[in-house]
Predict the 3D structure of the following.
Amino acid sequence: MAVYHATKENYDTLTAADGITIVDFYTTTCGPCKLFSRVLDDLQAELPFVSVVKVNLTDVPALGERFEIHATPTILFYKDGQMVERRIGVIDQDELQEIIGGYLY
Amino acid sequence: MQVKKELRYEDLDLSRFRKVFHPDEAAIEKEILYVRQKKLQWERGVIASSGDVITARLQSELQRFNREGVKITLGLGLLSRELENALIGHSCGEKVTCSVKGTSVTVIITDIQHKVVPPLDDEMLVEENLPGVTDKMSFHTYQVEKQRDEAATQLAYEIREEVIKEILTGSCLEITETDYQHWVDLQMNRIEWLSRFQGLELSDMTPSQISARIPVSSYEEIAPFLLGGARETMPLVALGSARAASDGYTVSREDYDNWITQCATDWHCTPEEFARAEPFELYEMNALSDYYYMGFFRHLKSLLVNEEDG
């Protein structure tokens, strides 16, 4: 699984890829964000063909404004470059795989 | 606001809440796997097995199973558990036909990627950068301590409301409606400023804009919500003030300034602007409430004991 760190400039390119891309909007001081980051690490071992884009809102506030992120973690799902789902809060491993499976197949 | 009499948590008999801690070895094994998986490699496989990622060509009358270049992690069941199980044991180029929900599906495996997770070594553990962890033994000790702290925190959370109620019933605090209202006013001012930093005026915000920030759905509900918070917080502020005075603890101006500077960075405003949202008075009240609560919480956590002490 490829893990990318987004900037204001590369966000659109990173999320335009074919297949499934998960965007994780987080802040470094957010406890639930650390939990979700761990879920994404575990996902890497199961679904290496799913891409992950991480957006550190402390470093890139412009992306938070652009996507109206008011809580973290906020998670966006892209399929073939199109945003298909938006979720707020930690998603556990089983539910995350179920969501991805729904868009993959 | 005054504490006329305090029932100290140290003087309460809380033995009914004592619990014995048992380490969860299966959870520690999971942590070890997590560390090992950071070094996992994907290698081309010959025979498909559970956990492998295969690429396949699917042919079927069912649209879901009629496509090229599909990547499937065998055994997860995300595409179809019966189809995935049918592919285990087959090799690249093999044509496999199976029935999914009564319909025939033909699969040709075009690639197999096999997951290789290396065994645990001390170098991997050192890379985790965990305090005091240099080898497997110290990693195990660290994990047990972490579990213990989590279990103690959980226990303290479960019993805290009941114990606080007991403390407040046995104490005599003088808190006036003006005291509660003052805390509500400070909080309301804070919310208004934070909304303005985001270009919004609190009184004009839509229900969804409000509920995204505060757990209420209208402007009219904010003051009653804050008043509820005041009734929970002010007794802790009073108890914290009394304890701070007897312990010789004072809330530091320097800590406040550092905190304001950090918040200003997070909110992309100046420290002076953020200080209008969070004046020292509010910070001090929160710090005193925390001062009491942290000591109280530590005391509750000590009710979790090790097996040998239980």
